[in-house]
């Protein structure tokens, strides 16, 4: 039986709330409509979303074998962590593909945002690429998306109106919110309701404190409470055991500095066998309990009367 949450579907297929309400109405009156939806929805929305977000949704979740017309399709690829490498824009753009070889996606932390330069970057790379931007207006966003930028990483201090909404033309770009592992539970609760596609835990990966018990507990908290795909900054010295641990606590991808360690980490990712996750992420692990008004007790004087 296929069971999906609204948040999970809306990450993969960006439709308006009215469309989802209409789909839910059809499903309630006609259960076979579920299989029609499963068959046609990917083809209707294949150009709507970011390639990186699509990879995160496809590669990090085990998809059950569908029923009906698609039973003969090939088995889904095994789940794996995605590898994203980050770097400032190199002086020689024509060597960009060479220095980032092995990565599933490239994150540029600084870049000349001229349209001509961005188009050169898009031509040089065969994998999805994105930009880390502190803030940008709608006028500045349009040429970036048109040049081929696949995703944007922005900090919490970015203006909400500067980020594309689900019904905007630029919404095919992935929206990744940069956060700290120390975010409190109140902020984690609302992440699932935000108009973003993924989360990036961008703490500096110090080798001495990475994957300590305290650090693992903080990551596990994200894995349990956040239903969206999660990327985490990591050192390139991670071995197969470290990658497996990140997977088990709920991380979907790692982001490392571009350097000599990229090739070794790519090799470790290809070798490691990731187990099935023991628990799906809960949309709200800790429920919000509304405080009920307590009627004041009668005072001693009122009781005596």
Describe this structure in words.
The protein has 305 residues and is an alpha/beta fold. The protein has a domain at 82-271: TIM Barrel. Helices cover 36% and strands 12% of the residues. It contains twelve helices and eight strands. The protein has an eight-stranded parallel beta barrel with strand order 1-2-3-4-5-6-7-8. α8 (185-191) links the parallel β5 and β6 (198-201). The longest helix has 13 residues, at 17-29. The chain is globular and about 45 Å long.
CATH third-level topology of the domain at 82-271: TIM Barrel
Identify the strand order in the major beta sheet.
Answer: 1-2-3-4-5-6-7-8
The averaged pLDDT comes out at 77
Return Rg in Å: 22 Å
User: Roughly how much helix do the residues carry, as a percent range?
Assistant: 25-40%
Low-confidence stretches: 1-13, 38-46, 62-76, 283-291
Multimeric organization? single chain
Q: What would CATH call the homologous superfamily of the domain at 82-271? A: Aldolase class I
The biggest sheet amounts to: 8 strands, parallel, barrel
List keywords for this structure.
TIM Barrel, single chain, 305 residues, disordered N terminus, 12 helices, globular, alpha/beta, eight-stranded parallel barrel
Topology:
Elements: H1 6-12, H2 17-29, H3 33-44, H4 51-59, E1 82-87, H5 96-99, E2 105-108, H6 115-124, E3 129-132, H7 138-146, E4 151-154, E5 174-179, H8 185-191, E6 198-201, H9 213-225, E7 230-233, H10 240-248, E8 253-257, H11 261-271, H12 300-304
Parallel strand pairs: 1-2, 1-8, 2-3, 3-4, 4-5, 5-6, 6-7, 7-8
């Amino acid at each position: 039986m296929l069971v999906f949450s609204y948040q999970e579907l809306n990450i993969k297929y960006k439709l308006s709330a009215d469309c989802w309400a209409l789909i839910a109405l059809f499903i309630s009156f006609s259960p076979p409509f579920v299989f029609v939806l499963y068959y046609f929805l990917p083809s209707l929305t294949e150009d709507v979303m970011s390639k990186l977000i699509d990879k995160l949704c496809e590669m990090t979740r085990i998809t059950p074998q569908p029923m009906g017309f698609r039973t003969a399709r090939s088995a889904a690829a095994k789940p794996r962590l995605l590898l994203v490498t980050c770097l400032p824009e190199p002086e020689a753009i024509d060597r960009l593909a060479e220095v980032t070889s092995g990565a599933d996606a490239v994150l540029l932390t600084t870049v000349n945002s001229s349209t001509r330069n961005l188009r050169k970057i898009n031509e040089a790379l065969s994998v999805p690429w994105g930009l880390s931007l502190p803030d940008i207006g709608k006028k500045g966003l349009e040429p970036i998306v048109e040049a081929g930028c696949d995703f944007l990483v922005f900090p919490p201090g970015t203006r909400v109106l500067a980020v594309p909404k689900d019904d905007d033309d630029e919404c095919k770009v992935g929206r990744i919110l940069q956060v700290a592992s120390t975010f409190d539970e109140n902020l984690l609760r609302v992440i699932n309701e935000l108009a973003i596609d993924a989360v990036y835990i961008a703490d500096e990966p110090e080798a001495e404190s990475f994957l300590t018990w305290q650090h693992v507990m903080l990551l596990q908290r994200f894995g349990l409470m956040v239903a969206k795909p999660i990327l985490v900054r990591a050192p390139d010295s991670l071995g197969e055991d470290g990658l497996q641990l990140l997977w088990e606590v709920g991380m979907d991808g790692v982001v490392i500095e571009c350097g000599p360690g990229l090739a070794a980490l790519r090799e470790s990712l290809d070798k490691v066998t990731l187990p099935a996750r023991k628990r799906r992420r809960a949309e709200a692990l800790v429920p919000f309990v509304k405080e009920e008004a307590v009627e004041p007790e009668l005072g001693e004087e009122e009781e005596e009367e």
